Amino acid sequence: MAVPMPSKRRSLVVQTSMDAYTPPDTSSGSEDEGSVQGDSQGTPTSSQGSINMEHWISQAIHGSTTSTTSSSSTQSGGSGAAHRLADVMAQTHIENHSAPPDVTTYTSEHSIQIERPQGSTTSRTAPKYGNAELMETGDGVPVSSRVSAKIQQLVNTLKRPKRPPLREFFVDDFEELLEVQQPDPNQPKPEGAQMLAMRGEQLGVVTNWPPSLEAALQRWGTISPKAPCLTTMDTNGKPLYILTYGKLWTRSMKVAYNILHKLGTKQEPMVRPGDRVALVFPNNDPAASMVAFYGCLLAEVVPVPIEVPLTRKDAGSQQIGFLLGSCGVTVALTSDACHKGLPKSPTGEIPQFKGWPKLLWFVTESKHLSKPPRDWFPHIKDANNDTAYIEYKTCKDGSVLGVTVTRIALLTHCQALTQACGYTEAETIVNVLDFKKDVGLWHGILTSVMNMMHVISIPYSLMKVNPLSWIQKVCQYKAKVACVKSRDMHWALVAHRDQRDINLSSLRMLIVADGANPWSISSCDAFLNVFQSKGLRQEVICPCASSPEALTVAIRRPTDDSNQPPGRGVLSMHGLTYGVIRVDSEEKLSVLTVQDVGLVMPGAIMCSVKPDGIPQLCRTDEIGELCVCAIATGTSYYGLSGMTKNTFEVFPVTSSGAPVSEYPFVRTGLLGFVGPGGLVFVVGKMDGLMVVSGRRHNADDIVATALAVEPMKFVYRGRIAVFSVTVLHDERIVIVAEQRPDSTEEDSFQWMSRVLQAIDSIHQVGVYCLALVPANTLPKTPLGGIHLSETKQLFLEGSLHPCNVLMCPHTCVTNLPKPRQKQPEIGPASVMVGNLVSGKRIAQASGRDLGQIEDNDQARKFLFLSEVLQWRAQTTPDHVLYTLLNCRGTIANSLTCVQLHKRAEKIAVMLMERGRLQDGDHVALVYPPGIDLIAAFYGCLYAGCVPITVRPPHPQNIATTLPTVKMIVEVSRSACLMTTQLICKLLRSREAAAAVDVRAWPPILDTDDLPKKRPAQIYKPSNPDTLAYLDFSVSTTGMLAGVKMCHAATSAFCRSIKLQCELYPSREVAICLDPYCGLGFVLWCLCSVYSGHQSILIPPSELETNPALWLLAVSQYKVRDTFCSYSVMELCTKGLGSQTESLKARGLDLSRVRTCVVVAEERPRIALTQSFSKLFKDLGLHPRAVSTSFGCRVNLAICLQPHRLWKLAQQGTSGPDPTTVYVDMRALRHDRVRLVERGSPHSLPLMESGKILPGVRIIIANPETKGPLGDSHLGEIWVHSAHNASGYFTIYGDESLQSDHFSSRLSFGDTQTIWARTGYLGFLRRTELTDANGERHDALYVVGALDEAMELRGMRYHPIDIETSVIRAHKSVTECAVFTWTNLLVVVVELDGSEQEALDLVPLVTNVVLEEHYLVVGVVVVVDIGVIPINSRGEKQRMHLRDGFLADQLDPIYVAYNM
Known about the structure:
eight-stranded mixed β-sheet
């Protein structure tokens, strides 16, 4: 059959049409949110423990600013918090319907109903939209939690307005509340009676049972020293060594003596009784380990058996080191072979492992030990409450805890096992399990010695070579008992090929250690099926359940009665997700078949309690955590009293609040129930529990479903990890499997999509991410399982390196906020008196008034720049205006006033004579950044031509750069092209001919060869409104736009900058900018002529060879004011980061810099400016010196912030420091501005774009309706000033940009003023700062270009915000760009790393965008460095990238479709 690809799943955005949502003012969900989900019995649920409350309250406070938590009201035995909350809730319902719902009684009349399609197990819950957090009450019934009281009150008030509503007023609805899964009214609820605690049979003490385990060892070691105790195997399955009871006794004594007397000195022994000692033995050497273990017991020191650290960075070994450190371990006992195999330093020392304490390694082989003296004898006591040993346990998060087991618990546990399993003396037992802990230790090392049994130990290394070895040993030794895991049974089945000599009739008990796993039942059935003919009896198979805390929890007893079938339960998976037991039929797919794990242990009491909150007894048809009360359990987590109290000292209570027993119970960490006949059933582990949208799923069940998907040949069976990660306030399921090396991408993709479908239909839960990794790359536990927490850690930090990833966020993430409804905008009715819009100050601001500024500006008397230059050439002929530096920092060229004037005259002659140009003709100036460009510009003015500066083509990259030059020359209708000899050749070269039609160039004039004569007269324009020059630039959206600058605007512009930056002839200014458009051109070519200051010109391209050039020049010329671009700043930050010391040594000093302005047409890059300031602070750069400017096409500079650091009166006006504000990103998406504290969630830092230039007025207007906006709104920045451009010359690429960009009027309010629309969104804010004349300073904040903003889910997103989040997501993301395609968000990331890291980025990118922006990423494209196009200003060209993506030209490393 055809497998539907996951990409077929329709996105959530598509499914939910905009009209389907309620209007925003009823956004609080149902009116009756206060009502509590009814409880069918009407019994009070006193389950809300204080722990639960605090957990939820804290989650609610951290998770969302508005929704607090809710609770069922507690009528008895509960915490007071729940009562109080219920009271609050009862009062929050302002009477907006006839009677408030009675919150204290349990009725369902107010509960929210959801329709759910019936009859199909595969139907998914329809997402229900409310706006609170989902909360589980302790009895597993989710109730709809409420919004906090104040907000509820507000919402109710808004629902019922006091006066007839004016259409113009609206509610600010930028609270984006995450949706909450509402409880399903048809969900199953437990209906049974309360369970009773279950008692095991009496522990019958047999008279000859030893008083302690050491006493048993002494007895057998002296009575029958020749009896075999342990036989070990080599990797060929041959017996390697037989340890007898006599040898075990004498060697253990020797070890005990040496531990106590041979470590340290006589006065200061290293180890005293009661100290902890590590046991580090390999899995193939149980004999040495057993000797050491009993040596410790005899010496009364506490053994801590752990795994051998194979390398210094073993998975989980660091955590084991923490355990050893917290146990105060200083000595590690080990075997000779193991000691030799440990990693060593060159000097032969064993290095300290990461996270481990300093250890003395002590080898326990007899030949290394001294003999105890004749009179020395270990002190053998009766079992008491001292700690016998510590067993390590790995938690869900990877941390390792030590469970302490006392000597009495150890002995009682051995007795209980002996009774339950019917062990007798000298029985033979085959053990395949790890003998260091758990079932393998209890049966194979401890209980066996108590009963003088013979253990045949099968190492894991032998099982890998020969999976049948354990069965062969059972036959060979006629073993009565075998301890295995279901994995060993499965392997034996796979390896079994009709071997004749197998006879399993000797087995009376096959202990299945992981009998509680969901897949163990199929292994048991299959094994019985095959081996029944080989003498295996059904009643021999004995699954057991155990946990490190409670030791053996339950075990099936071996019976002689073969007629009694074992207990089975076929349970509805749907019921289980709500914690309810519902028996179902085997035919269905969505059922879990579980086998019993026998009866409660002798001498123990068992009950099951609700998994969260107060430990209240479950009902008979409810799943809970099994708890055990017995002597034979662990007693504490070593050194952790708080966790110990929660786990080992639990007092279960009945529904009336009465404790079940006066003795404490231990939580086993197992989820299950006690079925009929006292049989214990386990359905999962607390550690494997994943709560997704309020339903509980067990990791093991998901694994079992994945394993059932055929064909299995693409992945390894035992190597699947399932865990959940928290994304957007809910758990999301992640599956990681190892892919076989021979499977193709197609194969695995098909298997992955089948797994998704299977889990979706059986568990009714979506899988968030399914990743396949290459074979043998998942971190392993020492016995070959998968190290889960380490795998999760690798996934989250992006170092899992998958080779295939499939993500389905659209189907899983159902708690996104509703798409926004656009508000009706405010109309004239709500504009109040004066400058207020709907109660807010109209957002408008202006720079200083030009008319009021008294300055001795001589240049003012001239209307035209050409006249200013002539005047300067006469009055100060030898004053240097321009100095050009080369890449070595030496002067390449300079121009005085008179030199510039004379050069311009010659160029004017050339234009008139050789070019035969008329006044008003357009001339393209194609020059590298330098002096020639400036002279050519003024030459054009002298000849009455209109210059257009054009960036020359890049000689190494003609194919891509020359077409742009050609396009500007054509679009600007240039009659002639002026350039240098070198570029002239380049334009006519063969490479150029390949890129463009070189015959179509207009006449090209080479200014390296100028005529000697002067023009008859210098052209003087008739009218200041005639065109001075054209400014062409390519926008970030890839549009070429040329704007017209008239003479009046040009002069006004220069004057405005002169006043703002206080420029005089005595000043020097360093400029490191591209001189082709915008403010860069004006500063490079025009300002020095107008103001007379000296400009030190540093071409940015020279910084590529010498990054320190600009800063060295600034230092050398003692410059106070400098201008640069972001690309220059980035070059310095990246290129000089490690060289600050050597630059300091070279005498680089930036302490004289008062202003360093970044010239930009975008939102200030705050991270870059801050890191630049920090980096060069040591070289004297004042942190407040760095600021930004803002300009755009309609007005080349609106803001320019020159800071004045020394506020002395004679230094003229002082500008305030740039202010940074933090705004709520969620509000910004709704075009609202809400200021928040630094560091608050969803905060976005924005830096002011500089001080508004003199003569500039700004207003913030609504881009759609053109109405003025209030202070707290994000809108388009409109500008009115004398230096606005006078219009587009031509627009290439988009004819829709009409003249209204330059001549717009407000739709109401001040409708007279003519404004130019910048096309940028921003907001204004009054700051507390004042400038020199005491005026409050208005700060302008630029948020982003309107063209670039993306409309998604009815909200406005700025690409840079999403990109910033993505770049932070992983260290190897160097650059990122986002755009939309249809209604999908596409994220392109540049990968700086090996290609195997590419797929690590997919989940991380998806996570971070969901978490921070509430958006589902549709496509993640991973590309090489440099693929994202950047223009000359250092801005990303997202539209070019989008075109490349759609035309499939990006050559990506990987494209992931999150469909």
